[in-house]
Amino acid sequence: MNGKIHSIETFGAVDGPGIRFVIFLQGCSLKCKYCQNRDTWELNAGTEFTATELLEKIRKYKEYIVNSGGGITVTGGEPLLQTEFLIELFKLLKKENYHTAIDTSGIVSITEDIKELLSLTDLVLLDIKHMNDEKCKNLVGRSNKLSLEFGKYLSDNNIPIWIRQVIIPTLTDNEKDLLDLKNYITSLKTVEKIELLPFHQLGTHKWKELGETYELENIPDATKEDIEKAKAIILS
Question: What is the pTM of this model?
Answer without folding.
Answer: 0.96
